[in-house]
Amino acid sequence: MLLLQYIVSGVATGCFLILATIGFSLTRHVEGFLNIAHAQLLGVSAFSTWWINVVLGWPLIPSAIIGIFCAALIGLVIGRVVYEPIRSAGPAILLISSVGVAHILGGLIDTAIGTGIRTLNIDIATSYRFWGIRITDHQLLVVALAVIASASLSLFLAKSRTGLAIRAMAVNPSLAASRGVDVKRTSRATWLLSSSLAGLAGVVLAIIATLSTEIAFEQILQILAVAILAGLGSLFTVIWSGLIIGIAMDASVFWIPAGYRPLIAFGVVIIVLVFRPDGLSGRRSS
Amino acid sequence: MNWLQVILTVVTIGSIFSVVTLALNLQYARGGMINFGVVAYFAAGAYIYAIFTHPAPEGLDQYIIGLDWPWWAGFIAAGIASLLFAVLTGWPTLRLRGEYLAVTTFAFAEVLYSFLLNERRIGNGAVGLSNIERPIRDWGTIDEKYIFAIVAVALMFLTAWIFRKLLNSPYGRALDAIRDDEGAAQAIGKSAKRMRLQVFLLSAIPIGFAGALYAMYMTLVSPRLFTAEVSFIVWIALVLGGERTIWGAMAGTFGLILLEEVITSLPFESVSAAQNAAAMNHVVTGLLFIAVLRWQPFEWISKKLEKK
Amino acid sequence: MKKLLQVSNVTKQFGGLRAIGGYNGLSFDVDPGSFTGLIGPNGSGKSTIFNLLSGFLKPNSGSIVFDGNDITTAPPEAISERGLARTFQTPRTFSSLTVIDNVIVGADNPGERLRFSWTGKWRNQEAELKHEAVEIFGRVGLSHRVNDRVGDLSGGELRMLEVARQMIRKPKLILLDEPTAGVDPKLQQNLADLLIAIHRKGTTIIVVEHNLHFLLDLVDNLLVINRGELLAKGSPEEIRSNPEVVSAYLGGQDAAQSYKN
């Protein structure tokens, strides 16, 4: 029974990881590198939401919207100023640059917010019981948001013109360019989209967790784990990977000390990579 | 501010970290391997040195092994430990390319960190082991801190010399060929897999020694000395110095350590001012990092020099 | 006579489509000391065959035996060590090495062992290899380029450089993938002379070439590939008079054109 409880909370954790990773995966597909600074955008949104909600005293929803807006804007600007000029330098240089970006954002958040633990000014979670399993309304919110976000993202990618352009770029950037896709515009649309998703995940993080300035760094580990596990697959492999890692992390508490929980994510990744060097999807990057 | 003290610290810490940067330079700039978990090999060396030289546990100690061996045995063991950790991590992961290797090495470092933090039987968990054996004492009239700086510099130059010899030999040339075009190198009989593993293992040994030296210098090992931050600092140093050259790797490390030492030794009026300075330090290093990667001034300089 | 290379029933699929081998798989063999041309229309699988022989691709079925050793699943570097050399369709060179180092690095160099890095024992071989490389440069007509940077070489010179890098390995069999593409006539003549010379010394050669004018003067054997299958084989004369080949390949506009040239 306890195990089942852990699995249920693992699904919620997994849904948060999905929210945090889909934006990351999107940039990875389109821009072709692992953007380590993605998690700092979660931090940007989480702390702007906190600041507006607690310091200015606004209600949650408008605070959250402004928080997401901040993350989207900053993500777009960084994409334009930092990554766009070095696109041709290759994934390794872009990856290493993003570590620099993560340092800058982390430092700025530290300066602006300072140390200490912060929570939003909202009602604490109420829990419901179904057949003895406890679920909180916050967990349900996370699951609902993950479902809505992934469904609308996949709809957007499948139906809209920009979505089609993004998909074309992800498959083959030079081919897409030769077929009339505006590479710069599409790339910026991707930054806007992935940063907004990071912003949404940041708001969720602010709701479900207590915020400290190290939180972004802790998130990037899990985001990397999910993204690497998924490999270069579709949105659905990201969803699967998020759920697998979320459940594995939470259910592991049943057997081993909770201090090792973050390790489980990487344990899963290492095992998968040893057997499938290209992740669950098995697709190889060129 | 005591400038002499700052300079000594920069020389000592700078040399210790330079060893790690040099190893990373060999792995990345010549071997084409992105190791984002370099701190793990450093930590392995430091912890093994501590465990080998520490007395048996007593009282409130939670660690279970303390061999109380002499310092030199611990020092050798540190190099071996780092090598073994490289075997353990390199063997399954080196067939992964680029970003996958970056993430798995990063993951291994996190695994080790988490073990050191949670498994109190290794080194007292978060508390760490203090009063680490420090073999270097005052030498006649010379203070031990000078001797320490000299030893650190010597280790750095020894590492640089050994790597330089390696890279200037036909072995280094074959390594360059593999990095430039792996397929074409295979077509002339070069085993990319074997040579990468060799370089990975070889470069781990001095990192282990540097870890042992770091443990002696700090007279402490604890998980918070070996966070992922250390890996990033070494990467930033490598990029700052221009990734291709041995001198660049050392210059970048010293520059970065100097910056950090100057900031931390500035007299701040309040705690929050000091915290802000530390945070701004992050921002400045991040900006430098991006600027160097974007405009590649060192490539430019070396090209200018070559044309002359 | 014992065959140098035996390809038996090899098939290769890409994404479920059979690229090489048709129904029964591709089979052919090569005699030691022969000079074989591999021809066929674009996309007929010539480069894929080279990639299979040199270990860069693994066949889905069938076997490849080289010099008495099964190399079907061997990695490229092991195949290269056994004496099977190859060049690539687009020249692949090492951009951070000088021109001469690009050739020397090709040698099967005992001085390349890791432990010699520190003992300096590699210096003995180095002078000898340098001498050898300079000599090869003379033969391909690149002497004046020895100390240049690879980036300064023309496409044709890069191709010569790649051939030179394989020559220094003294291979038993060398696979040349379109060695004359983008090479000016002067260098082409040097190349032809070099190939004749090494062939006389006993090196077996297989060459993929669109320039039939260049090819037919050199080779003693032709293999005609179409859609991944062996369409015909024989001496240049036999192939020229084979109606099936003429209609499938030689009859094509380009081929007739280049043949006339």
Explained architecture:
The complex is a heterotrimer of chains A (286), B (308) and C (261). By secondary structure, chain A is mainly α. Chain A has a domain at 18-213. In chain A, 73% of the residues lie in helices and 3% in strands. Chain A has eleven helices and two strands; from the N terminus they run ααααββααααααα. Chain A has helices at residues 2-31, 38-55, 60-83, 91-113, 137-159, 161-171, 173-178, 183-208, 215-230, 235-252, 261-275; strands spanning 127-130, 133-136. Chain A has a two-stranded antiparallel sheet. Chain B is an all-alpha fold. In chain B, helix 1 crosses helix 10 (228-240), helix 3 (71-93) packs antiparallel against helix 9 (192-218) and helix 10 crosses helix 11 (246-265). Helices cover 74% and strands 1% of the residues of chain B. Chain B has one domain. Chain B has a two-stranded antiparallel sheet with strand order 1-2. The radius of gyration of chain C is 19 Å and the shape is globular. With 261 residues, chain C is an alpha/beta fold. Chain C has helices spanning 46-53, 76-81, 99-104, 116-119, 123-140, 155-167, 185-200, 212-218, 236-240, 243-250, 253-260; strands spanning 5-14, 17-20, 26-30, 35-39, 61-66, 69-70, 84-86, 173-177, 204-208, 221-226, 229-234. Chain C is 38% helix and 22% strand. The interface between A and B is large, with 42 and 42 residues.
